[in-house]
Amino acid sequence: MNEPPLARYEATLQGLARKGRLRTLAPRIGFDFSSNDYLGLAASKRIGDAVAAAIARGTPVGATGSRLLRGNAPEHEALESDAAAFFGAERALFFGSGYIANFALLTALPHRGDLLILDELAHASMHEGARAGRAEFRLATHNDIDVFEDAIRRWRAEGGMGRIWIAVESLYGMDGDCAPMESLVALADRHDAFIVVDEAHATGVWGSDGRGLASAFEGRDNIMALHTCGKALGASGALVTGPGVLCDYIVNRCRPFIYATAPSPLMAVAAREALAILVDEPMRRVQLHEHVAFASRQLAERCGAKPNGSQIQPIVIGEVTRTMAIAADLQARGFDIRGIRPPTVPEGTSRLRISLTLNVSKADISAMVETLVEVLATA
Question: Which UniProt keywords apply (predicted)?
């Protein structure tokens, strides 16, 4: 083989560039309309003070090992205890990231002989977990309960005898729409199925005290939920909540949990303080919901955008090059809005993803919409 060692990688990058899909790292610029720091907690003084106090009393930065070795710190256990109580679950486990947690759940819990049905627009980490896991898996049309149920009935008719697993997001991060949780739970009950629900974009923002869109169903023995700590909670990592038996199973059989160095105890401190803030400072959610309503009206009136009621508002452009040019223009004018393109979203649906946070004011939202109207008119 005479091909230079880097040639295949260079060719891939060149191909991505020709398609307008070459990614590069870009700095934070302008007003924040792209982050997931929905409640503005990433720079919270209260969280910072909690972490500083933990350092002062000797809490280490590093965990020093996996949770099953010496990496199980009191801070991890305190967070997990508080999280289980907060979310109404029997048990909680702290992972280093939401991506790893989703991957871990779908590779560890569904067994060979089971069927996993995955919403087609679920997060990439769920798709990776489905492909790497032992269960047979099928994709279902986004939010279509009939398609989910048809897949179950066909599989049973073909002789499938195992357990059914359903995997969804409660609030989809690129479309801003919500899963029909009540219908999904009813479907799971009809077929004796489990649900894995990724609450990443709902935790902290929706539900009582920010407990998420699936909060009414937590505590059931067929629900496993994932609550990301790196979005509205302003920290990093993720909490998996569910029945104690399944959490114990993860501790014993889940390789991404067993063999990974534990998250920093300081991140456990930060996430625990964020949960307390959700209860103590409800006005943050109220203010964010006001932002959502305000921005939805303006985007509908000025840009014809269809409101979805969430803090994530996509403006679908369609063509990749035009989408990225519009995003670059907005950034140059001081508004940090990023273009999203395939494979993150389906072909032909490249979009601007407008994210609403408490890092901007209503005046900033009005200025953003005004600028967006100007840019769209000339793009």
Answer: Pyridoxal phosphate, Transferase
